[in-house]
Amino acid sequence: MKREDYKFCIGYQGDAALVDGQAKKSYSGDSVEQLVEKGLYRFAISSALFDADQKALDLIRERYNAIAGTKLQTSDDLKRMFGVIEPAEAITRVLIIK
Fold first, then answer.
1. Residue 42 and residue 81: Cα distance in Å, rounded?
2. Which segments of the chain are extended strands (E)?
3. Does the global pTM surpass 0.85?
4. In which domain, by residue range, is 27 found?
């Protein structure tokens, strides 16, 4: 799966990733920091995961904790909170949802 498709993936159906086409069109050029500033945490988490960027995941967790008043301790807590999973190799198709 391409980075931008994974970044805006909103779910899976069998071997297909379901991608938010509107968000991909609007925010594909945004950095993790820009996505966080816009409150698009799920997309920011996916972006950081695809890049295996632990510093970015820590930044997202810290900012989310500060705004939401939560006490998420780890990146796994953050992934669980937003329902984000690691990129799957079993995905062979991408469906863009408009």
1. 9
2. 9-13, 16-20, 93-97
3. yes
4. 3-97
